[in-house]
Amino acid sequence: MSRARRALGRIRWYVRELTGESGYERYVAHVRQHTPDAPVPSRREFERWRAAEREGDPRSGFRCC
Amino acid sequence: MRPAGQPRTAASPRKIAVWTAVALVGAAGWTLLALSRGEEVSAAWMVAAALGSYAIGYRFYARFIATRVLRVDRTRATPAERLGDGVDFHPTDRRVLLGHHFAAIAGAGPLVGPVLAAQMGYLPGTIWIIVGVVFAGAVQDMVVLFFSTRRDGRSLGQMAREEIGVLGGAAALLAAFAIMIILLGVLALIIVNALAQSPWGTFSIGMTIPIALLMGFYLRVLRPGRVTEVSLIGVALLVLSLVAGRWVADSSWADTFTLQPKTLVVWLVAYGFIASVLPVWTLLAPRDYLSTFMKIGTIGLLAVGVLVTLPNLKMDAVTHFAGRGDGPVFAGSLFPFVFITIACGALSGFHALISSGTTPKMVQKETQIRMIGYGSMLMESFVAVMALVAASIIDPGLYFAMNAPAGVIGDTVQSASQAVAHFGYSISPDQLAAAAKAVEEQTLLSRTGGAPTLAVGVADIFSQVFGGAGMKAFWYHFAIMFEALFILTALDAGTRVGRFMLQDMLGNVYKPLRRVSWKPGLVLCSAAVVALWGYFLWVGVHEPLGGINQLFPVFGIANQLLAAVALTVCTTLLVKSGRVKWAWITGVPLAWDATVTLTASWQKVFSGDPKVGFFTQRSVYQDAIDAGKVLPPAKTMDDMHTVVTNSTVDGVLSAVLALLIVVVIADAARVCVRHLRNPSATRLSEAPYVESAIVAPAGLVASKEEKAELAAAERSGP
């Protein structure tokens, strides 16, 4: 049982990392690590900011044919 | 020369035995593929040859390049570690990055090229895909990734400008732009050929737009950032629209979704323009998630399908078109045209754009560059092998009926059957009609571009494993949908990248154009890019000689030209960084690639055979116009004028592309000679050494020493 749960946890971790879903938590952890009481954006603000970045330079996230 | 701390250990007898066995499996595969004549060969041997060669290449050649040539340094911090900002630069787990990089490099390319190259038989394609990837393609991806990582993730264009010079850099930039335009035109043409007269396909592909808009709204407004759940919802809706496509095709709506190629061109151009000026979150980002899920899922299924069914290859090992050069799919003989038709999967310049840019900013350890750069390219190559299998298991008669232009085989099953007999293969009119009926399409004749052929092969394999013959039509449309998804995403993303390049170039003349937030500039540049690829799409659809037949070689030349740019940058960097002894690692692939590409463009420009040489073709048709005659396959005088215009454009383009490659190589050669004469004057723009604090394994599975190292790092605490 616990082995199955661990395996599911690993899969969930992998999918979240691969899709970039864990990007927000990573960013918050990064900010907290360097300046513990700096303000962090909300998830909504963060995702909007990421989309705007991609708007500005379409080469990031470009995929091959 | 070995990096410190990696003592050479004597190989254990067990290891020697394992690698001998791997080599034997690969050799057995090659032997059977090469020697069997006249009887059908199992695809198992192709898989064995591929996997055996990949394993040997990865274990020995890639390791040699990483440790001896590049001298990857496990004590050196990567840009991800040094510049970590929690967003673009962050040390990413190697297994995640492998998936990430693979998803970014794999697309429609490795699926289409091998299908078209199958007209020469399966053997030439197989040899090029496997040998090419081991010695050229995977090497290029890994070396570019290494040098870009050492330069904080600089792009290929920036490296060309910094390391070669302004002239070479500008030629490289112009080449990249031209390639993008031709690529988008050809990809769009593939979609048009797959969706024309197909209400099922057109409806289900059309539905991907509202599905993507819905996903975009969900991610933007309802639950920001919840990518996995929204992707699952999207995939479910996608399958639903695929099932619904069959109902639509059987209903009174069928006529609405049965579109002529000319109508589809208008729709695609309009789509390309609107999608590329809409905000990223509305269509592009959600569609990207959708196509990534579909891509990884379908490639996985295909691997399972091929390995479970191990079908027999019905295509000849080498067809007579290989020597004669008069094949209906594309003209020209085996050398050089197989090597430009199969690009992605063997050697792809486009990968250099991914290996420099996104991926190097995420590499955790330099030692992982082999696994990520070389490893993902081997996976991509295997995708190409599977596409070749899919194209080679269908009846050769059907293959040629599907891939020859309408001008050659006519538009009835009777005329197609006769034309195929003329090629030296046989298929009856009834069989042709039955093949179309099995996948619930009105016709399969002249469905050029590779996607429909691949879909027939994939449907064959999938229906044997999942669902039986009754599911064949579903799997056919599933495969079409899977390719169309990539291509529509590529049209949108590619138009944006093209616009960015154009804004950057024109910004030198008129400053405000460079500002991406200046809407009029953005709309104008988008319109210009769409108009350019739209032109090639229009030409391709109206071409009496067959759009794919005429344009695919130009596309192949353009694509391999980008590889030449990437390999030139790599070779120059090897020379300038004091590795001149090892410059052949990328120098030999460069020489091969340049020979192939330049020979192909030479033939396309100067060949006296009107099927191959664009200018001879032009003068044959011009002379006929002057004499007031209409030459088949043209039907009217208008067709004749179309042929003359198109061959002129294609011929000029082939010549310009060849010229650009010569400029880049010559400029790089000048830089290399200057360096060798006076090495002390050379300045490398490599980022300075900083010691790494991260401990992480190099390969997919941690070795015993790496595990001990990880445990020790754990004990000493963060």
Secondary-structure map:
The complex is a heterodimer of chains A (65) and B (718).
Chain A: H1 2-19, H2 23-34, H3 43-56
Chain B: H1 13-35, E1 41-42, H2 43-69, H3 79-82, H4 94-105, H5 109-117, H6 122-150, H7 156-163, H8 166-195, H9 199-222, H10 227-250, H11 261-277, H12 284-309, E2 312-313, H13 321-324, H14 334-341, H15 350-355, H16 369-392, H17 396-403, H18 406-409, H19 413-423, H20 429-438, H21 451-465, H22 472-506, H23 519-542, H24 547-576, H25 584-606, H26 614-626, H27 637-677, H28 704-716
Note the main attributes of this structure:
heterodimer, A: 65 residues, mainly alpha, 3 helices, 0% strand, B: 718 residues, two-stranded antiparallel ribbon, 28 helices, 2 strands, 70% helix, globular
Overview of this protein structure:
The complex is a heterodimer of chains A (65) and B (718). Chain A is mostly helical and 65 residues long. Chain A has 3 helices and no strands. Chain A has one domain. Chain A is flat and about 45 Å long. The relative contact order of chain A is 0.08. In chain B, α10 (227-250) crosses α22 (472-506), α12 (284-309) packs across α22 and α26 packs antiparallel against α27 (637-677). With 718 residues, chain B is mainly α. Chain A binds chain B through residues 14-21, 23-24, 26-27, 29-31, 43-44, 46-48, 50-51, 54-65, and chain B through 84-88, 90, 92-93, 95-96, 99-100, 103-109, 155, 183, 187, 219-220, 224-228, 231, 279-281, 285, 288-289, 292, 344, 348, 350-351, 353-354, 357-358, 486, 489-490, 493-494, 496-497, 499-500, 516-517.
